[in-house]
Amino acid sequence: MSAPAETSFRETAVGRTSVAALLVSHDGARWLPAVLEGLQAQTRPVDRVVAVDTGSKDESADLLDAAFAAQHGPALRVTGATHFPAALELGLQQLDAVGEPPQWVWVLHDDANPAPGALAALLAAAEQHPEADVLGPTLREWPDLKRLLEVGVTISGTGRRETGLERGEYDQGQHGDVRRVLAVNTAGMLVRRTVLEELGGLDDQLPIFGNDLDFGWRAAAAGHTTIVVPQAVVFHAEAAHRGIRRTPLTGRHTHYQERRAALYTLLVNSRTRALPLQVLRLGLGTLLRMIGFLLVRSVGEALDELAALVSLYSSPRQILAARRERQRRHGKGAADVSDLLAPPWLPYRHGLDFVSDLAAAATHQAADVAERRRAATLERDPSSMVTRRPSLDDEDAFEDTGVVARFLTSPIAVLLALFVVASLVGAREAFGSVVGGGLSPVPESVGDWWHLHLDSWHALGQGSAVPAPAYLLALALVGSLLGTTLTISALLVLAVPAGVWGTWRFLRVTGRLVSPQGAPRWVLLWGATTYALVPVVSGAWGEGRLGPVVTAVLLPWLAHAALGFADPAADRRWRAAWRTALLLALVTAFAPVAWLFGLVLGLVVVAAAFAIVPSAMRDRSTWGPPATAILAVPVLLVPWWLPSLVHGAAAGLVLDVGRLPLPAVDTRDLLSGRIGDLGAPWWLGVLVLAAALGALLPRATRIPVLVCWIVALVAGVLAAALGILVVTLDTTTTPLGIGFLVVVLQGALVTAATLGGQGLAAATLRSVGTRRTLVSVVAVVAAVVPLGGLVWFGVGGHDGLDDTEDTDIPAYMVQRSMTGDEHGILVVRGSVETGLSYTIRRGDGVTLGEDEILTRTPEDAAFTDLAQTLLSRPGPDVVDRLATQGIEYVVMPAPADGDVAALLDSTGGLVQASAEDRETRAWQVGRELDEQALEGPTSWLHLGLVVLQGLAIVVVAVLCAPTAERRRR
């Protein structure tokens, strides 16, 4: 800026207008040279420059002094804790202290570079629009220079900053009209000094973000006009908004500061009558925004949304004080600014845009995954680009033909369809209500499952604080849609078809990891159908053992997720960790020993990796994901895990779900894949074992087959170690639950056999004669396994299931017990010679989930003494104690012991009751029942653990999703 030019301007500008530039900097040395050059190159120079540096640690203050110290004085240096409104106020004081105060103040940032004609355009617009008190330029992205950032700005009812621009819109002169707006950005804002002082400057509660919107709103409410001048251009780097520059004021949570500023602006400037609705709307809107951020895996921004809302709602005095200050300045004549705010329908349009963006992102992600797989295939086998003729076994063949034609011309598809239909026929016993074996009846309402999961005290027996089994949460979620009966029926009916789907997907991926072509579809068909029948041929299905059945369906998905630990990209390894953790937690809920197996297998694999490639294991992103997957499971299951230890029910952490005792599994059962006495013939499992052993022969697939054998050996050794242990409970003695390990062992053997078949098929293509004949014989023998299992299942090898539950309790007593927990039934079985035992029935009997709570609940010694006294030395005081314990009936099912029955007949307070069976004896307690007999304490610890589990599930589910990075230049 030359002195002659300045003198010439002042001679022509006296008595008309004067402008002072107020420049605020903080660690802006990377932008300041260009900004200073732009300021000095203005076609209409400024009259004065006041620079304020807020504790810069770089050379920003020195650059300011070098540019302006000679003519306008040195920069005002203040501490880094000085926020932007305070720096602006200090600059105004500096202007007032030296010379005549200017008429206009031009506010600039250290990352906002004005075009040479920016100030001239602003002043020209001020002359043409004398009613304008605040003027703002067009903001373009720096260094892009053409992309528009803002041409005036407003705010929506949800706090969103609205610019009216499309994403990535370029400046082509389409926004060329000077118009009135709610606010303009402080970067390049030209404001009358009197208006700035009248409004008290910028709000100190908005230290860095949002102060322009608040100032514009207050100016409009005070009757001042703000316009945007598109002909004036300022290039803005948005360093604070984009996270390029971090200061003590912005911190690491930029989104929190921006969201808090937006909420504050709405709350302090809204009309009084609209404030209650605004408070409610912002609260609900914040929850919806959190869900949206979680859907795109932006957990940090979701938490920032919540933190911003809590920060403001927890300090209402701050909001009220700001509102009073605005009312004091505006009085009762505040102008209506509703026409300057964003249209009320705009947030809903943004919601639709968000949904469409999610759909587009999912589509693009699927395309990217497919592209990566194709690229990996070409990298491993460039010859796969050679044009080939499609065959019936090609998944991508016949794309131009109809779906039906493709289906009928594919023998694999036809066989899979026939297999699924045959499996549904074999599962006919599971249609409708199912009970029997290890499966207890289901409750009538899914609310019973929810109560068991959420309540810390259960009105079962004489009351129990033992937590509900972990799998009830999954059943409750599904049961809320399907109902209790249909949920269990669907789990059993769809076990085999769902197993085929998951196994096919897993085996196809593993096959492609071994070779680009993957496994032949005939081999995949054998592996998928053979494994899908594991829960059936093992006998777990016929026994009603939900644990092995459900985990057999989930295991291929869990294994597929764990394959991500070998991904070369660290981000995908961590995403695999969260997916594995979620699936392992679900598997552990149905088979508690699964977590122990995962821990042992993880230690074995990590130890082997350290021994083989120690350099790679030094990277935390290599060993961190599997460790995270294992350690996250106890947190995801904490409402079951921790209370089980506290309340003496730790045995539940090593037992399978369902009724006790559990079936014993010996060595032959382990090798043949049998659980219980209802399994298929043992030789079917032996054929799978032989196939897995034979898979070690082909060289091409020997290494992955050895990996499968390592998994099988870990499962087998752990099963053998746990199989010799027993758990003694108050009601029974049972072996540990190793059904899951049997499923894992069979899954590892089937995978090994499938990979071996893939290697054998590849070798066969290069051979002729007797070798091909041998392979054909092997294929025929292998086909016996799925065919034999399917035929055995179809003819009915599962007679442990039924659709009714036998009861020897009179129906009217059952109905009475369902009216309240205090109407309990004491059921006494046995005789004096063989020994007497008792159970207590309440409500609709022992249902799924309740049986496990009861078997793991320690014996109530006081009530056992009461029952012994009743059956040996009964008296009126004993009857009174029964009433206080919530017992209304005493029943001795047939055949009742005559001596005990005669003793009870003569007891005062017991009234003989009718029974449907003549040999069944029953009595009613003739005392007033205690309605609070079964009420127990509420555990706030359990409630906190349930909340922690819910949050953990949401967070892990979000972290499972693909990364959604908000990329900013």
UniProtKB/TrEMBL annotation:
<keyword id="KW-1133">Transmembrane helix</keyword>
<feature type="transmembrane region" description="Helical">
    <location>
        <begin position="940"/>
        <end position="961"/>
    </location>
</feature>
<feature type="transmembrane region" description="Helical">
    <location>
        <begin position="705"/>
        <end position="726"/>
    </location>
</feature>
<dbReference type="Pfam" id="PF13641">
    <property type="entry name" value="Glyco_tranf_2_3"/>
</dbReference>
<dbReference type="InterPro" id="IPR029044">
    <property type="entry name" value="Nucleotide-diphossugar_trans"/>
</dbReference>
<feature type="transmembrane region" description="Helical">
    <location>
        <begin position="680"/>
        <end position="698"/>
    </location>
</feature>
<keyword id="KW-0472">Membrane</keyword>
<protein>
    <submittedName>
        <fullName>Glycosyltransferase, GT2 family</fullName>
    </submittedName>
</protein>
<feature type="transmembrane region" description="Helical">
    <location>
        <begin position="522"/>
        <end position="541"/>
    </location>
</feature>
<feature type="transmembrane region" description="Helical">
    <location>
        <begin position="629"/>
        <end position="655"/>
    </location>
</feature>
<feature type="transmembrane region" description="Helical">
    <location>
        <begin position="774"/>
        <end position="795"/>
    </location>
</feature>
<keyword id="KW-0812">Transmembrane</keyword>
<feature type="transmembrane region" description="Helical">
    <location>
        <begin position="600"/>
        <end position="617"/>
    </location>
</feature>
<feature type="transmembrane region" description="Helical">
    <location>
        <begin position="470"/>
        <end position="501"/>
    </location>
</feature>
<feature type="transmembrane region" description="Helical">
    <location>
        <begin position="738"/>
        <end position="762"/>
    </location>
</feature>
<dbReference type="InterPro" id="IPR050834">
    <property type="entry name" value="Glycosyltransf_2"/>
</dbReference>
<dbReference type="GO" id="GO:0016740">
    <property type="term" value="F:transferase activity"/>
</dbReference>
<keyword id="KW-0808">Transferase</keyword>
